[in-house]
Amino acid sequence: MTPVIVRRSALRMWAMAIGGIPLVVIGVDVLTQRRITDALRSVLFRPEDTQIFESRDVIWALVFVGVGLLFAIWGVRELLFPSLVLRADQDGLKLNVTGPFRPATLVPWSLVDDIGTGTVEDEGAFLEVLWVRVLPGHGIPDEPWGSRWLEPTTLALLSGDWETSPARIVDAVIDVAMEAARLGALH
Questions:
Q1: Distance CA 85, CA 6 (A)
Q2: CB–CB of 22/37 below 8 Å?
Q3: What's the chain's average pLDDT?
């Protein structure tokens, strides 16, 4: 049986890593020679209206460097060692709903009632999700990471940054569940 493995999109992780670089460059520029910021200041302000740097600018520069490095390091880490979002194998569904650097939660097939796709509304935007209806004793936290409870027994996994569409994943997961049930019946 071939397991279904879902990871985040490499393109999105690459974009996150690249997105952190301008923050680092601007932050380092403010903290050092200020070549870029002086050039921008001369374009945006008349010489007599030029802004001076204050201590809060240094604080913001440090925040830019920190956040930029965090984005860049996290993006590269996800590219080199992609995190598991979902895995379906003969044991059940392994869902990464406990947060980063924590093990995935295993939901045995005996506790999975149904699986499908849908959309949820989040502040006016409609997000594509893969939902899993589970039975009591599932072990999923009350406040899951990267997902949300739609109903007391239905968990929606946000799929916006996945490498594969939820519809394809659902079909593959159903095939794995059927195969696991068939193999379980033979034993």
A1: 5
A2: no
A3: 86
